[in-house]
Request: fold
Amino acid sequence: MGEWKKELSGELDRSIQEMLQLAREQDQLEKSARSGSSASQLRSQQSALQQGVDQAMQRLQEAGNKSSLLSQRSMRMMQDAQRKVEEATQQTQRAQTGQQMASAMRESSEGLNQAAASLVRDRERTQNSQSSTGFAEMLEQLQQMAKQQQGINSAMQQLMPQQQKPGADGQSQARELAKEQREVAAQLEENGDKDNSGRAEELAREARQIAQQLESGQLDPAVLERQQRLFRKMLDAGKLLEEAEREDTGKREAKPWTGSDVFTPNGGNASGKAASRFAPPTWNDLRGLTPEERRLVLEYFKRINAR
Reply:
């Protein structure tokens, strides 16, 4: 664990320093563009800067395949920064004035600094993690959020009968529930940075919509049923994530062979033909699927390679 954290932390430190350095270089290029420096020189320097960003992005993608502690938020910000740098490079090729180049370069520099800030948060989370992938923490947080959602649902059940009584005013209580529901949505969004399957992000979107209904005073059985479905989805998401991590939650049972069939190799040509024409997906490719979906995908590749 210590060696793994040291390796990932080192990669994050390197990427953070690179992003900050590239942002400083982009700032200098912006100043040069505004001061009227040679367009050909700016093009060459901007192209070299883009190559540095592309290389950093490639290394981060490789690190992201090893651990969910490198958040999806950081990857999105890195992709956004990479896009802005590419736009700045294209602008140096077609812009007629230094001011036009400088405007694109400024946006590029801001994107690089934002990506660096997000990587710093991932670095802190890596240091505090108790597992190599961050999965255990993510699962525990999801379980805590499910308990919080259950409490909101219970409060909703108690509030609804009061709304049927004349003169009862539960609007303030409804707004309080909406606030708690938004807190759940925010936590799910944060958890979504570590969940490559996209389930947490989907749950967060559902929680935000429920909060909007509560805020508008919709205290009816339909909203309560929607909350109950959200709670069940949160429980199911935890189970699916756990199954995905272990691949198989069922107990395996060994049985003696009772058949009489004997496998005999045929007399085909054994010239060393490639075993697989189509490379099967890796575990990282299948991680977001359920066990049954993974089985179907692997069976599909098995069949097409057997033809």
About this structure: The chain is about 75% helix and 0% strand. The chain has two domains: 2-128, 135-246. Residues 12 and 123 are 6 Å apart (CA to CA).
